[in-house]
Amino acid sequence: MNLEKSIQNYLDELSSNSPTPGGGNVAALCGVLASSLGVMVCNLTIGKKKYLDFEPEAIRIKESLSSFKNDFLKFAKRDNEAFDRVMEAFKLSKDNEAQINFRNEKIQNATWEAAIVPAEVIIRCNEVLPLIKIISERGNQNSLSDAGVAASLISASAEGAYLNVLINCSSLSNQVTAGEFLKTNEIIFNEVKEKSATIISSIIKKITKRNL
Which fold does the domain 7-211 belong to in CATH? Predict the structure, then answer.
């Protein structure tokens, strides 16, 4: 997502027949939104008498989440750039064997890069979740639903990123290496899904209990 453009511009581009921005970009954007919601919960906690004991940690978590937000924004940009390089590689000449070999090498290198970016998104998602868990447990309890949405968005971010790792790995010629890379990402992705589900379940129980 280009911050210099309006949300409407972004949505128009997303809805167009252009392949970028696409699913990988949106997956990273979900991470941006989740981190931003986490920062909001911290801001709604800091300065409140009820949470003075937690305030120093809330400040540290806010700083970390702000950093993660910037990371996800960079990933969104890199995802577009990586896909563009794949498309550029496919446009290379293939009139003779040398050109064909060069073209194939460029395609493979670009595809690897296109797989690496969403893999980094999954890793960041796994690093963000413990912070969301803490603020859901100790942060402003009037913002429980916001923390829950943050956890849900991180889950969506990781799942979207995993789908992009999967499709790029399926296009790689070295399926042994691709399979190993995919397995590593699958493990981290499953961790994110499990952790986020636990956080969301706990939040739902808290809110439900409050309403009884």
Answer: Four Helix Bundle (Hemerythrin (Met), subunit A) (1.20.120)
